[in-house]
Amino acid sequence: MASICTSSFIYAFMLVILNLLSNFALQATSSPRHLSSVASNSTKRRHRYVEPSCCRHISVNIGGARGFVSVQAAVDSVPENNTERVIIHISAGYYIEKVVVPASKPYITFQGDGRDTTVIEWHDRASDRGPNGQQLRTYRTASVSVFADYFSARNISFKNTAPAPLPGMEGWQAAAFRISGDKAYFLGCGFYGAQDTLCDDAGRHYFKHCYIEGSIDFIFGNGRSMYKECEIHSIATRFGSIAAQDRNWPEEKTGFAFLNCRVTGTGPVYVGRALGHYSRIVYSYTYFGDLVAHGGWDDWDHTAGTNKTVFFGVYKCWGPGAEAVKGGSWARELDYKSAHPFLAKSFVNGRHWIAPSDA
Ligand SMILES: *[C@@H]1O[C@H](CO)[C@@H](O)[C@H](O)[C@H]1NC(C)=O
Ligand SMILES: *[C@@H]1O[C@H](CO)[C@@H](O)[C@H](O)[C@H]1NC(C)=O
Ligand SMILES: *[C@@H]1O[C@H](CO)[C@@H](O)[C@H](O)[C@H]1NC(C)=O
Ligand SMILES: *[C@@H]1O[C@H](CO)[C@@H](O)[C@H](O)[C@H]1NC(C)=O
């Protein structure tokens, strides 16, 4: 009897404590300002990089010798709301499938055997119809779509193999990859498509040593992203454009920062277009081949004043196309002070989610 009484007393006591804690947690999330004076030091601590607990390993092998035969099956096997990093090793091969990583599955890594040997590809176009009979439209054409936070991919390529549109054809947008989750990291990846290749939709992203190929607006969306030491390759045959950034309000922190990249291939291309009225695109220390269109940048047919609200800049760029990028009144050659925010991983708050050796 006595022990039952004691344990139910302890149980009741724990419930009270739990209630107190959860009330406190609710207050903390609903009114963060209330805690901000206390939080300043712990905020600093949070900014330091913390390696997530590591790791569960899963393999995908198209030969089927061992593990899953499709990437989607491997993703499906990850439990919802996982808190541990799950590394999905994808053996060399062409995986012809459409893959979705849902928002409920964070901390997934796609580890390929090499950008030239492990490839996930599909072939949807914007005018194709989805299961509900509606047209897919651009964002839903991606061969691989990631809605989860803390996704990463290494040494793997993503392709959309729909053929390039002929001039004037509508509805041929065909994305290879869409990233809509926050804090995503890409190393040594390839992105291949004919039009609208990489949908850099939303969240903070870091691309390093990647290769991105396309013809029209082939890096687009409202992400806040850094592209470091990447090759941006145009396959435009008549006219093309590289980055179309969709920032729409002056308060938004989104934008595309290209750092130490190489812009190669065929043109002429605009290097940036104002998809949103407050579009932000900066190229720093970047090489431009001889493919940049006269004027360099484009306003996406917005009327009045967009050329005063966009932030298009270049800083210490070089190569035969570098002069054209500075052309017109759209883009400015930045000084160090205004280029500075676009030159380091702090642009994407990298200090607390990118390992120092990965930056
Ligand atoms: C924050 O940290 C600094 C030194 O790291 C210390 O001097 C200061 O008292 C701390 N402030 C609070 C509110 O804990
Ligand atoms: C995962 O978390 C979400 C949101 O908190 C919740 O609605 C869902 O039921 C959870 N799923 C599982 C399997 O625990
Ligand atoms: C990725 O591939 C490169 C070159 O093929 C290789 O040097 C590197 O070790 C690979 N990295 C990972 C994480 O697989
Ligand atoms: C900028 O917009 C104004 C109208 O708001 C227009 O007169 C001017 O020509 C534009 N400049 C460029 C470079 O497009």
TrEMBL record:
UniProt xrefs under InterPro entries: Pectin_lyas_fold, Pectin_lyase_fold/virulence, Pectinesterase_Asp_AS, Pectinesterase_cat
Enzyme kind, highest EC tier: hydrolase
- What reaction does this catalyse? [(1->4)-alpha-D-galacturonosyl methyl ester](n) + n H2O = [(1->4)-alpha-D-galacturonosyl](n) + n methanol + n H(+)
In terms of SUPFAM superfamilies, this protein maps to:
Pectin lyase-like (SSF51126)
Query: Which is one Pfam family of this protein?
Result: Pectinesterase
The processes (GO biological process) annotated in the record are: cell wall modification; pectin catabolic process
EC number(s): the record gives 3.1.1.11
Q: According to its UniProt record, which residues of this chain constitute the active site?
A: 217
Its UniProt pathway annotation is:
Glycan metabolism; pectin degradation; 2-dehydro-3-deoxy-D-gluconate from pectin: step 1/5
Q: Which domain of life is it from?
A: Eukaryota
The GO molecular function terms of this record are: pectinesterase activity
- Domain (Pectinesterase catalytic) spans 58-350
Q: What is its main location?
A: secreted
Q: Where are the transmembrane segments?
A: 6-26
- Keywords in alphabetical order: Aspartyl esterase, Cell wall, Hydrolase, Membrane, Secreted, Signal, Transmembrane, Transmembrane helix
**Location in or out of the cell:** Secreted, Cell wall
UniProt cross-references to PROSITE patterns, sorted A to Z: PECTINESTERASE_2
> Which PANTHER family does this one have?
ACYL-COA THIOESTER HYDROLASE YBHC-RELATED, PECTINESTERASE 68-RELATED
UniProt lists the family membership as follows: Belongs to the pectinesterase family.
| Name of the protein in question | Pectinesterase
Source species of the chain: Nepenthes gracilis
